[in-house]
Amino acid sequence: MTAGVLAATTLVVTGCGVSGATASQSADAKGENTSVPVLPARFAQQKVQWTACGRDVTSEAVPGAECGWVKVPVDYAAPAGETVKLRVSRVPAKDHSRRLGSLLFNPGGPGAGGASDVANGNWQAGGQARARYDLVGFDPRGIAGSGQIKCPDGVAQGPENPPRTEAEAKKTFADATRRAQACKRASGAVLAHMDSVSVARDLDVLRTVLGDAKLNYTGVSYGTFIGQQYMKLFPGKVGRMVLDGVVNPAADMRQVARRDVKTSEDAMRRYAQDLVARGDDRLGATAEEILRRVTDFAKKLAQEPLHGTDGEEFTDDTLSTYLDMAVTDEASWKPLTKALVAALDGDVTAFERLDAGTAGESGGEKPTPQEEQAEENESMSMPAVLCLDSPSAPKSPKEMLDTADAFAKQSPLFGRYYAWQMIDCATWPITPTGGDEPIKASGAAPVLLVSYTDDTQTPLENAQAVHRQLDNSSLLVRKGQGHGAYASENPSTCTDRAVDRYLVGGKLPDQAANCPRRGGPS
Predict the structure, then answer these.
(1) Nearest to 392 by CA among 257, 230, 191
(2) Distance CA 440, CA 468 (A)
(3) Binning pLDDT at 50, 70 and 90, where does residue 365 land?
(4) Are 341 and 354 contacting, i.e. CB atoms less than 8 angstroms apart?
(5) Which residues contact 334 (CB under 8 A, 6 or more apart)?
(6) Residues 482, 484: Cα–Cα separation, whole Å
């Protein structure tokens, strides 16, 4: 896993993977995926009919943006059966004479579409990469423009007041099961095939149709999980791949939930330490006293709830929800302190104002209909992907209660809240097809992992674990808090230049590479 320079990407179209009549061998050192069945030639021979992007993609397309469709099988085990059309967008390379090929992008989620992000310029890569690559976004199968699944009654969310008795748990399970079954009836065959392995195979169809011999790819958050699945299936076709905000494929759903608990606990401790450092002793003189006082307050609320302006109960679960929302966002720390001080005196209405402030932090701008629809789509699509990819959710009301109790012992403030976030997958009507295991990707070209030091969604420890698991990778760490460090809304010259050097010239950063919060050396 040493740094080095990769060979320049060849643009000669080959027949690997999606054309021909025999299986393509792609075994790693452990013998994983010894063969990937080859698809009928009609999928490889598609021609994208590029046209101007419509308003269903974006109302403000960047100059040169164009959109089209690519067909893939719904079920790769039965490629002669149903197909689904993937919506794709493209912004041509600015320096066309030195074009390197296509750079595909996935924003994560899971459940987020990428076609609009490229078409409207929300994601543009770094300046050097943008000049040399066609930027290509796509909506994964069953998501947004690619046959969006339908859930007439919505999907189960973690309950505001998690059940404490088996009777309550059974009622919650029954409601979640009803919602999930409605999704299954309304969504058609694609719902059973929204797993990330199928999306990785879609990537290989896109790669071939676009005319690239190797896949050049940038995945953010859950997009890094899709990228790793591609590396496992097609190690010989990996070109230059950036995995930014890394998901660890070896962590099961319960481990991820426990990690989320720890992330919130750590953020709560940082919040308390910040109060002490600033000399604000309204909640306590030390970080330990602040944490103890808030925890004791939560335990009291469990027995004696307070009431908001609308008369609704404000319980320990309500407090957990507000804390989780606020402590991971430093901009919310000041109003959080005001709300906690007031709540300890019996007035919880300041939490309602905290909620309103968070909702309006974008400057009071009302979401566009497209943005509202995208959020609704993502909420439906997320469990459809996660519940197929990971088999480890609790499967009965009693098991969920026991899991929540164990989580609550670990963290009285956040444990039960995060345990019940698994309710959607606990009741999903389709059997999981994925597993929780590390990926080596032996034989794949070196890839670049990127992470913030403080990422509350995909912690740095994820990237470090994947760096150890992969046979050939480098890790670039950007100091500071955030999620998605490359080509971000808060740009870092150091990060963007390091990633661009890899994407354009194949040069990986040193193993211990670090970048400051913003700017930095080239």
Answers:
(1) 257
(2) 9
(3) low
(4) no
(5) none
(6) 7
**By C-alpha distance, which of 154, 231, 238 is closest to 423?**
154
Within 10 angstroms of residue 360's Cβ, the number of other Cβ atoms is 11
Element (H, E) at 401: helix 397-410
Judged against a pLDDT cut of 60, whether residue 304 lies above it is answered with yes
Burial (0-12, 13-18, 19+ Cβ within 10 Å), 347: middle
> And the tokens for 263?
């992330």
Show Cβ contacts of residue 78 under 8 Å, excluding neighbours closer than 6 positions.
none
| Start-to-end Cα distance in the chain | 23
Sheet holding 215-220, edge to edge: 51-52, 66-73, 83-91, 133-138, 101-106, 215-220, 238-244, 447-454, 473-481, 514-515
Pairing of strands 66-73, 313-314: unpaired
- Among all chains, which residue has been given the structure tokens 């075994």? 27
- Spatial CB neighbours of 108, under 8 Å, sequence gap ≥ 6: 219, 220, 221, 222, 223, 224, 245
pLDDT tens track for 175-211:
999 999 999 999 999 999 999 999 999 999 999 999 9
The residue ranking higher by pLDDT, 29 or 227, is 227
Q: Where are the beta strands (DSSP E) in 292-418?
A: 306-307, 313-314
Q: Token pair of 117, please?
A: 């992000």
User: For residue 309, how many other CB atoms are within 10 A of its CB?
Assistant: 9
pLDDT in tens, 398-446: 999 999 999 999 999 999 999 999 999 999 999 999 999 999 999 999 9
